[in-house]
Design goal:
Number of strands: 40
Low-confidence stretches: 425-432
CATH architecture of one domain: Alpha-Beta Barrel
CATH topology of one domain: TIM Barrel
Structural class: alpha/beta
Helix content: 25-40%
CATH superfamily of one domain: Glycosidases
Mean pLDDT: 91
CATH class of one domain: Alpha Beta
Largest sheet: 8 strands, parallel, barrel
Strand content: 15-25%
Oligomer: single chain
Shape: globular
Strand order of the largest sheet: 1-2-5-8-9-10-11-12
Distance between the termini: 37 Å
Length: 1048
């Protein structure tokens, strides 16, 4: 297009921080935000400034062909990229950055131009020379005075016209100039003349920093620090990493002088993006890399997202318009990795728009890593400037020790523990193990090898009530637990017993389950039939019978997976069980049945996509422990509401292994479902644990700090408050317990990419002391959390305590399982509810949710759920038949609101079967045309039965598993068509409540209710009339707009 003349924007001068105080943050405008513009980056600047960043370094923005790219193929070296917002957008970003106290450094490319620009520029002057060649094409001709002036004016223009505070000159070792004043030195000179405080930095790679004009630069990028550190952390030795691997090389890089002249990094755009798949450092080594980089006296550079463990890759992407250039880019990318054996897999196509999309930040955070970066940057600001006092290393033992008063950094890159004396405060790079316990007297970390041999390590440090140690040489797959010493005084609520091995409350993987058949006793007391048995301490070691925590490798290739963020109004939830859905599926591979991998299989996903659901609500997948009495009955806890590990996916649902592999398998399931457009909602149990009441086992929390983790009866702390009917209630009032819950929720969102949560017995979490309080600390923290507040939050709005039934009373941002909807719809279709009650539920339950500003989707509508009859049983049984649970049919609710259509249980009576089929269609139709968010119980669409068992919590067998060979094909097709109807017509998915009036000028109200004869409903019809109701929904009276502002 044509060129444009602009008046230079007025950007005031800014005092750039001194190099010795600088922390640089490199970012790419196109992928830093979803919008990919200068303007969109502005709201994130304040967070960077508060983190301790002094300057942002923006990858090249000089105008390049297409919409997106890294920017190193720019053609017009003085024009700001139009797709980013052009020159005015850049000026606004500059003004905002300066307002936050941030300098802005711009990456500029003066060694070549993009291939598409070569012909265009050659028509004007000899811009290029044949005497030299760069890796990226023809070299710029600096023998020409005009070309030199072209580049010098560009450099001055960025500083003078836009207020840029510094330039980073790309690959100065590929800028060829034989004149006395090298062009790099000339650029530095004119920039400093324009603004004495402006910085000029040069990228030199591994080349000689005394050449190519580098001495004229204020600072230079050097790769030796990165390469030495990377190989020590990852063990990679291919390609340009081949010469590295010695600890001494890292020590040498630490000693560059003067330190404020060298920019170093553990990650940057090149070192991530030039990898085959653009993958970042593995999560397990990120803390080590951060410590080395930020402790060094050199200028540290962070790459966007590094500070919180961003999971998205940064891949090589381009948008070349010229197809010949596009194909050459693809081929060049493949050839680039010929020397890297581990990258033999297919390389992502740089021209594929998905490659660009995958590289956008997800902002899914690792809260621990984010806190660590913030603390390290604070310490760096408090540390006096200057080089290292001393540095030493041992090549054979693989350790490095660096002193920079008042701290010492001890780095162990080997597999064996190393003990070194330390005179200063220590920063230790290794595995960090810690356990919260307010009342403990001592804690041991217990490590187990493959033969179950135990090694104990005393945790000697205690900070903020967290017992911790730093243990080098511990890696993924290591099994461990804790033993906690303290008084055993049950009458005072204290139940410490170091003979009992405890799971880590923060364990991300757990190996095994309790072996109830083993002779070892997992109870902290000597089990007898006496009522006061728990008062006598048992000193028998239970390690052989208990599960073990496992250290995991957090690294996972998400390949650009991002939150789907399906609006609640468009959501159709399918409640199911990982094992139950897949266990008997004839098309799923036998070794994958009952597992996360089975749920991720093509067969499972094809079924769900064909059905049309948009979200799976999975029954609990947190690691669980069976109740002791079930073992004696040869039963298992199938539903999973007996959590013992809030960060660990249940290992028995893994096909690939239980030594940490279950984490990767779970993530793979989420990624596969997301690719199919299906969200994952987890049913979570933060109200109680598997440790039961005062006579329950000791597995984790009870032995770590009983009075902190649990709510105890105030006057009798031997006993537990039980708002859940399970024997105990977790104590979210305690700050450390609340933090554990929040850390767990963030972990599942940030690290595992889940899309939301259904909180079991959520009223128990809202109890400040006894009364349910919707303004409790739990809700306050949820609403203020930048991660959790953005996902789907669903409450089961009741518990078993006094005043626990709280349907309609949860705060804004929350949706609720609408128990009133369930009861009313069941009653209506058996003739026990009037039309008025039914219409209230059909239209979104505004009586429950409108008064506090919530919308129809606050109501999660359901007729059946895991807890109770299936749909088939709802129309086949009037009474529960729970004999298989071996509790004499005393368990389970008697309030089923069901009708058997004339015969109790299974029958071959055709009239009864036809009536039952019609009733099922009535229920399904009601559910899927109601305003609100529908939840379908998995299996209802194929006629799944539990033979009248309305409490199949302990039936991990064919009674609960889907029988795919006996499915009702007609009902499945009917359900599929209903879901399609709902998805195709926005009138069933309104985001605002119906009002019965005209608002959009259609001439008719948004809803009209009428009798069987077509006349308007009267008050008598609503209250006492026949159970017949007509409803007209006006599609021309939908107030909301579509995603792009269009009418729907």
């Amino acid at each position: 297009g044509p060129s444009r003349v602009l008046e230079p924007p007025a950007v005031p001068r800014f005092d750039t921080p001194a190099l010795k105080d600088l922390v640089i943050y490199e970012l790419h405008i196109g992928t830093f935000t979803e919008e990919g513009t200068f303007e969109a980056a502005i709201p994130h600047l304040a967070e960077l400034a508060s983190l301790g960043v002094g300057a942002i370094e923006i990858m090249p923005v000089a105008e390049f062909p297409g919409h997106h790219g890294w920017g190193y193929d720019g053609v017009y070296i003085s024009a700001a990229q139009a797709s980013y917002g052009g020159p005015l957008g850049l000026a606004r970003l500059m003004e905002a950055a300066h307002g936050e106290g941030l300098a802005v450094i711009l990456d500029v490319v003066y060694n070549h131009v993009g291939t598409s620009g070569v012909k265009a520029l050659e028509a004007f002057a000899p811009y290029f020379t044949d005497r030299h060649e760069t890796l990226w094409g023809r070299a710029i001709n600096y023998d020409s005075d005009g070309v030199r002036e072209w580049v010098l004016q560009s450099a001055v223009g960025w500083v003078q016209d836009f207020g840029i505070d510094g330039l980073r000159l790309d690959a100065i070792h590929s800028i060829f100039d034989s004149r006395a004043e090298h062009i790099v030195a000339a650029i530095a000179r004119v920039v400093h003349e324009t603004h004495p405080g402006a910085l000029v930095m040069g990228e030199i790679g591994l080349d000689d920093p005394s050449r190519h004009g580098a001495p004229a630069c204020d600072a230079i990028w050097v790769d030796d620090f990165h390469h030495a550190l990377h190989v020590l952390l990852t063990g990679e030795h291919d390609g340009y990493y081949a010469p590295f691997g010695r600890v001494g090389q890292l020590a040498q890089a630490f000693e560059h002088t003067p330190p404020e002249h060298f920019v170093v990094y553990s990650q940057n755009h090149d070192q991530i993006g030039n990898r085959a798949n653009g993958d970042r450092l593995p999560a397990s080594v990120q803390p080590l890399a951060a410590l080395c980089t930020l402790f060094s006296p050199l200028i540290p550079l962070l790459f966007m997202g590094e500070e919180y463990g961003e999971p998205a890759p940064f891949q090589s992407f381009s948008d070349h318009i010229d197809q010949d250039i596009a194909q050459a880019t693809r081929e060049g990318r493949r050839e680039e990795f010929a020397a890297f054996a581990q990258f033999s897999e297919q390389i992502p196509d740089p021209q594929d728009p998905e490659t660009f999309r995958r590289s956008k930040l997800t902002r899914n955070r690792d809260p621990r890593l984010a806190r660590m970066y913030r603390d390290l940057l604070r310490l760096r600001m408090e540390t006096p400037p200057g080089g290292l006092n001393t540095i030493e290393f041992d090549e054979q033992a693989r350790w490095l020790r660096a002193a920079r008063a008042p701290f010492e950094l001890l780095c162990n890159f080997g597999a064996q523990a190393v003990r070194l004396p330390c005179e200063n405060q220590m920063l230790v790079i290794s595995t960090d193990d810690q356990l919260f316990s307010e009342h403990a007297e001592g804690v041991e970390l217990c490590l187990f090898d493959s033969g179950d041999n135990e090694t104990r390590v005393e945790l000697t440090e205690r900070r903020a009530l967290n017992w911790h140690c730093y243990l080098p040489g511990v890696g993924p797959g290591q099994r461990y637990g804790y033993r906690v010493r303290g008084p055993y005084r049950p009458l005072q609520g204290l139940r410490f017993n170091p003979a009992k091995l405890l799971l880590d409350p923060y364990a991300k993987a757990i190996d095994g389950v309790v072996d109830w058949a083993h002779d070892a006793n997992v109870f902290p007391y000597v089990p007898t039939s006496a009522e006061d048995a728990d008062l006598e301490l048992d000193d028998e070691d239970d390690a052989p019978a208990t599960p073990k925590s496992v250290v995991v490798d957090d690294a996972f290739l998400w390949e650009g997976d991002r939150p789907l963020r399906t609006p609640f109004s468009d959501t159709i939830i399918y409640e199911t069980h990982v094992k139950g859905f897949t266990m008997r599926h004839p098309e799923i591979r036998e070794d994958l049945r009952g597992t996360y991998a089975g749920m991720a299989s093509e067969e499972a996903i094809a079924y769900l996509r064909d059905l049309g659901v948009t979200a799976l609500e999975l029954l609990p997948i947190h690691h669980i422990s069976d109740e002791a009495f079930l073992a004696g009955r040869r039963l298992r806890n199938y539903w999973g509401y007996s959590t013992i590990g809030y960060f660990a996916p249940h290992s028995e649902y893994a096909a690939t292994g239980r030594g940490g592999q279950q984490v990767r398998e779970f993530k793979g399931m989420v990624k596969a479902l997301h690719r199919a457009g299906i969200e994952v909602i987890l049913d979570v149990v933060y109200n109680h644990t598997a440790e039961g009441n005062h006579l329950g086992p000791m597995l984790s929390f009870k032995g770590a700090d009983n009075p902190s983790y649990y709510r105890l009866v105030p006057d009798e702390p031997r006993f537990y408050m039980d708002f859940t009917g399970t024997g105990n209630s977790l104590n979210p009032i305690h700050p450390s317990v609340l933090r554990l819950i929040m850390d767990s929720l963030r972990y599942w969102v940030s690290e595992c990419h889940v899309d939301g949560f259904r909180f079991d017995l959520a009223s128990a979490l809202a109890r400040e002391f006894f009364d349910v309080d919707r303004l409790s600390a739990f809700f306050d923290v949820i609403h203020q959390d930048p991660v959790i507040s953005q996902v789907k939050l669903i409450a089961e709005p009741w518990d078993v305590g006094p005043g626990g039934y709280q349907v309609g009373n949860f705060p804004v941002l929350w949706s609720e399982w609408n128990g009133v909807y369930r009861d009313t719809v069941r009653d209506f279709w058996r003739g026990r509810a009037n039309c008025g009650e039914f219409a209230s539920r059909l239209s979104g339950s505004s009586d429950l949710y409108a008064s506090d500003g919530r919308e129809p989707f606050a109501s999660i509508n359901f007729v059946t759920a895991h807890d109770g009859f299936t749909l088939r049983d709802l129309v086949s049984y009037e009474h529960k038949h729970n004999d298989a649970n071996l509790e004499n049919n005393n368990d389970g609710s008697d309030d089923n609101r069901s009708w058997n259509c004339g015969v109790e249980g299974e029958t071959d009576d055709r009239e009864v079967l036809a009536l039952r089929a019609r009733q099922k269609r009535n229920f399904l139709t009601t559910l899927l045309v109601s305003q609100g968010t529908p939840m379908l119980l998995g299996g209802d669409e194929i006629g799944r039965t539990q033979l009248g068992n309305n409490n199949a919590w302990c039936q991990d067998n064919e009674l609960s598993w889907y029988d795919w060979n006996a499915q009702d094909a007609e009902m499945r097709e009917f359900t599929r068509r209903l879901i399609r109807l709902r998805r195709e017509h926005a009138v069933f998915r309104r985001q605002t409540f119906l009002r019965g009036i005209e608002q959009m000028g259609s001439g008719l109200p948004d809803v009209w209710w009428f009798r069987a004869d077509g006349l308007k409903m009267t008050r008598r019809d609503w209250q006492d009339g026949d159970c017949v109701l007509g409803m007209f929904l006006n599609g021309k009276e939908i107030v909301q707009r579509g995603a792009h502002g269009e009418d729907v």
